[in-house]
Structures
1.
Amino acid sequence: MKRLNEKIALITGSARGIGFAIAKAFGSEGATPILIDIQQEMIDSAIDELQTAGIKAYGYEADVVNTEKIAAIMKEIVKEHHRIDILVNNAGITRDNLILRMKEEEWARVIDINLKGTFICTQKASRYMLKQKEGSIINIASVIGITGNAGQANYAASKGGVIALTKSAAKEFASRNIRVNAVAPGFIKTEMTAFLPEEVVTKYQESIPLNRLGSVDDVANLCVFLASEEACYITGQTVNVDGGLIM
Ligand code: NAP
């Protein structure tokens, strides 16, 4: 028996990177992944790749901070598939700068997409989950939201906010059997970290007890567990997947 059989799973920012790996892992466990991302071309190629792997998936182009569009997409999904079992708020960006040099737009865009986008998608999906009296929401945070990081005040604040939002939502929704958890990845090999110079990567790697950068599958495997029945007594938690970087 597959662990997510017949579940309808919505994953934001899933045309590539961690979100795509989550969509693929969910699909392999019997779920129907529904992708939301901002570039239609990227969504199309992600869906092709999933279909090649034998996974039936659907995609919608939207910015997670476009409230009306997100609400319309959720409505459409429920019309087509009758429910939303799992929501993964994964879409996220960085705009790194030191506080003294940080432009207000850099602050605002990161807080908007990473934190407000998570709020909007949670609000719109939970409407249906509350009626179903069942659901699992997974918010992709970051270890930086726990430790902070020089040059990433906006990103750290957004991810710290995601962790606090996770706990509040877990408390609000628990009586309706909706679990809300956060996943805090450390350094994971994706486009987001690909721009880092070799020597910086080596330095990071040396600080990781398990002595390697994480893979997208390391994060996806945890998400499968949190979304599944095996995690039915876990809510409001932030689980790090970071090779022991912070403990
Ligand atoms: P990624 O490779 O940059 O992928 C993110 C995806 O989200 C991209 O397809 C991106 O589209 C899309 N996206 C960006 N803004 C969006 C918006 N407003 N609405 C909808 N989709 C949007 O990133 P990743 O490394 O897989 O990271 C995924 C999540 O994990 C993020 O929340 C990130 O903060 C978190 N995380 C990553 C790491 C890491 O080491 N990689 C560590 C800790 C936490 P475009 O490519 O077109 O912009």
2.
Amino acid sequence: MSGPPVSIRGHFPHKEIEHYSSLHPKARHLQFSYGTAGFRTLGVVLDSVLFRVGVLAALRSKKLDGKTVGVMITASHNPEEDNGVKLVDPRGEMLEAAWEAHATNLANASNEDFSDVLYDFVRDSRIDMSKPSRVVYARDTRPTGESLVKALEDGLKAIGAEGRDAGITTTPVLHYLVRAINTKGTKEEYGEDSEDGYFQKMSEAFRKLVSGRPRIPPLVIDCANGVGAPIAKKLAEYLGETLPFVLYNTDTTTPGGLNNNCGADYVKTQQKPPPSLNGVLQKGQRACSLDGDADRLMYYFIDERNYFLMLDGDKIATLVAAFIVDLVRLAGLAEQVKVGVVQTAYANGASTKYLADKLPVRCTPTGVKHLHHAAEQFNIGVYFEANGHGTVLFSPSTLEKLEKHEPSTPAQSTALRHLNNLTQLVNQTVGDALSDMLLVEVVLAHKAYSAIEWNSLYTDLPNRLVKVHVPNRNAFKTEDAERRLVSPRGLQKKIDDLCKRYDGGRSFVRPSGTEDVVRVYAEAVLRSQADELAFRVAGMVYDEAGGDPHRRPKEYY
Ligand code: 16G
Ligand code: MG
């Protein structure tokens, strides 16, 4: 005998879903994919996606027993006409990987099928529709953001979820809010669940960490004409004279300005300062750039010879990790608290060498979620991508140890206090340009380092990144944290043979997760050799992938 027909628990709001869904139809020809950074494409085509993401976020919350789920509307460092959306799980971390596929499925269902596809999803995922549902959302300054928020809100209404609009703010603030809301009143309380709470927590920790140190000279900040601008302005008020800011690229209203010739991604990929800072920077003065949603950070300065020197994610990771290792040792906790660093294959070989002499270093595939999870395996895990995204994670047992440890000397007690303040300064939910910036400033103040001294900790190997347009980037498959190709077969061997001919030569090839290209990275002891190696490997990739010989880019040897 067959059992009762499989049905879902609680009420499935067919009517509401059909009504709201009809207001946000999906264009037939469009296909969407929830990738490394959520959905991301031209802002004007995302209406149906935002509606459906609203529905999905509401269901995710029900699935997690009514915990608050976050939604961030941004396309980060992409051009202004792009937009995107990603979901944030209750502890402020990225959406669980299994749900990325659900997001893609729902976004691509036809208008006629949407309600049925959704019903099946709710049934198969055993979502109890009678549970409460809460979603907090925010957006960056992109012009398409406002209408996309409306579409998202319709998705929440369709399910009857409780929505909280966090307004225009940075990605890291949204992640902070999610964790703060969900830990409120528990012993893991993360902070007050408001933007003010975020600033209070960070600025108080910063003041404590730099108190008694010499006055910090002004820091130039390039806000990428994005949401980092209003947020940095507010932060400046909380910090007052403790850390004076000079803000540039703060225009969030002139069309086309966002990330245009400015921002962390521009600086990293162009290896030069934003033109708007030409003539502004004094020799040796510290400057930094945020990206369009303020979760990436690049420092840089102009040296005595007028050369531009970049202090990227690797330089930040080494500075911060070495500082934390010292504090742990000084606090008398070296035996109990293990510090480790997580990087990707893009980390400059010189940074890996510098770090590996001091502490364990892991390599993961590109993408925040991979680094974040690997960093969780350490008592204190420092993770950074070379592109400037990263943070420090203190495990729950480490937090407890730091709180309970009885120091036996005044020096131990000071180091312990600093560590405890660091746990408050760092945004542990996700990479946060502003929190990372304060962290860097703390280390520089403690070490009495200028940008020049920081930069001299190790010398970057010259490196080159090349994009190769190929007919099918999915033909490229990697292993060993993207450091080796398994397909096309035989290509890795050729790359290995070529690398051997260059002093300090290292190169790897991987398909991009965000663009329809294959990326080639190469480094070597000499600039000319790094360039040559990169272009030779790129040429091999192009040929192997069956690129049209007539269109073979000239600079590929
Ligand atoms: C996304 C990732 C970033 C990664 C980049 C690589 C997140 C939130 N962001 O922006 O971590 O470095 O993609 O892009 O995970 P690629 O695959 O095109 O090289
Ligand atoms: Mg970003």
3.
Amino acid sequence: MALDSDTLAQLCETLRRFVDEQLIPAEAEVSESDAIPDRIIQQMKELGLFGLSAPEEFGGMGLNMEEEVSVMFEISRAAPAFRSFFATNVGIGMQGIAIDGTAEQKAKYLPGLASGDIIGSFALTEPDVGSDAGAVKTTARKDGDHYIINGTKRFITNAPRAGVFTVMARTDMKTKGASGVSAFAVEAGTPGLSVGKPEKKLGQQGAHVADVIFEDCRVHESTLIGGVEGQGFKTAMKVLDKGRLSIAAASVGLSDRMIDDMIAYAVERRQFGHSIADFQLVQAMIADSKADAYAARCMVLDAARRRDAGQNVSVEASCAKMFASEACGRIADRNVQIHGGNGYIREYRAEQLFRDARLFRIYEGTTQIQQTIIAKALVAENRKRIGV
Ligand code: COS
């Protein structure tokens, strides 16, 4: 462990106060204005949130996975747009460089990513390439000691503010599959790289996604992550194994928050001469939510500990992401239900969190992709064992 248990407990306590005193009160403002206020971004930097997972030698906190998910449980009690603002630097926008980058690439980008002075984005998805991530159509053709990138990346979180993109592009045009894909660290402002308008979304206002367009974008071969062609898909999958645990932890944090909200409302709200918290049908929704959130928390912690112990956790990360995000969706729905008519009204947060939570079941791999990963791995393991 990078932190002793007292220091981790203190960090979590500080973040709990930050969430309760700063983030939750700002949710309505963020949702209405579709922007995170500068004062909050500054506080996030001061708290070290951008560098939670970056190695200490590059200015980060160097948290292991168990510590990182513990922090995510706390911070994710606030509306997910806040987490989204710094989480690409902790996860998918930074890990490609941190896991597979060359020493020069790490030295160049990790300090800025850890401090939050550079925002990192992960550019895998394309208009025609979503779940089938190995089918990347964006190309990077070798031209002397440069590559020329062409293609469009879609739904790229934090693209409008990114300083560096981890871009998956095909370097081997002879294969359509995953083995022909390479990863590049491409800086914003490189000629030929442009960012589209932020999309209007169902929820998570304040978190921005946009297209990233490459038109004859010329990058030096030193931008090839790890310096080896054909490794980009594997880099992306390693990044996503970790990212999925983080989304699972975010789902747990938001679940806990909504359980607090539903209980607070149920205790306060009176019908038929009683607080509705006294009615067993309402209690059933509270109890089911607690059991869902508790199970999800246990899964996330177990998978995180296994990862810290050096195990391959692709299956466990997918199980945790699938269960925790689906559980969060159920809890978001019950939260609206317990709030009754008020649950459908913007003034109460249940409506917003219901919309916000929906994305957890889609990004960083849909529930159906997690099912595929889990089943494929188990079937392959069985075949190997019996030798067929
Ligand atoms: N870690 C390291 N390597 C991995 C890996 C992982 N978690 N998962 C797969 N690989 C490797 C495989 O071992 C294989 O290597 P070899 O060719 O050397 O055997 C290679 O990558 C291709 O793997 P596979 O054949 O399983 O790839 P598929 O094309 O079948 O794709 C899925 C697998 C569907 C799981 C993948 O495309 C995926 O995760 N899709 C969802 C993408 C996603 O989450 N998008 C969200 C947007 S990003 S925010």
